[in-house]
Amino acid sequence: MSEKTEQPTQQRLKKAKQEGQIGRTPDLGAWFGMLAASVLLPRTLKQAMKHAEELIDKIPDVIQNPDPSKTLALFKEGLFGAAWAVAPLAFTLMAVGIAAAGAQGGIRVATKLFVPKFNRLNPFAGLKKIVGPHALWELTKSLFKTVVLGAVLYMTLKDIVPQLMAAGRLPITALLAIVTDAVLALIRAAAVAGIAMAGADYMVVRRRTQKQLRMTKEEVKQENKNTEGDPLIKAQIRARQMAMARNRQMADVPTADVVVVNPTHVAVALRYEPEKGAPRVVAKGKGPLAAKIRELATDNRVPMVQDVALARALNSGCEVGQEIPAEFFGTVARVLAFVMSLKARGSAAGLHRSPNPAPV
User: Where are its TM segments located (predicted)?
Assistant: First the structure.
């Protein structure tokens, strides 16, 4: 069996994303959410307490004048007030979760995960997760979490316990402030430590996923064939396209006004239609293709003019179907004028030497 030594291709990575096989850890979003909550929680509690005080002040009036409509209105006000107070915290936590997921490989609904697969019920695969390297990492991570969070809790309580022991004469509001600050400090310290651990977990999970997605050399070759096409088939398609192009050229040779030849190695067929602009190349070729152009010109009584330099220049500097470049206008115009003079005398067919050949 071939070893998977090759990095995954873009096509393989795309397929893995569609199947939900992405290296990510949920801890990253959870710990960032906790950190955001520790910042917004005091404001949320303050807003909630303020609204609760306003409601409490209205309760005696409802008790003295019991009215179902007033009671319902007070109940609605309480619900809307609680929702308004909690909304910033809720939306922030949602945004943090989405951002954390996006930063770990994008947000995509892996619909293929909803399709039942019986291989997921394989007990041997589950056993491998329990006793394999994945289980060892999860155990290490859990122990490390316990140690770190225990250390954070110890450092926080070490500072707050003496304050609470000496707080017998403090008012209840001051005591609550001390406890609140300590709890928030504990949450923030735990969140920072958790983010660091989640970052390490993300690197491990990403590395493990990349290793799982590795491919054998044969798989890479096969995927390249599927993506780019079989080289043999592509060569056959190119050959057919070239053959079709040659056939189109040959069909246009009888419509040419002149064929400029080398005289034996190169042939370029030109057609001049004044209403369409400059003369155009309708066919060109070297070797056997040039011989075929000359043969068709002979059969269809298309004049052939021997001009070595012009034939070579037109063959290398022009494309079939395009107008000749401006630098050839003068030379080609002299050739066409020569051909017109031959037609006027009734002796245009056949091979002729140019009276004014282009300099070699």
Answer: 79-103, 172-205
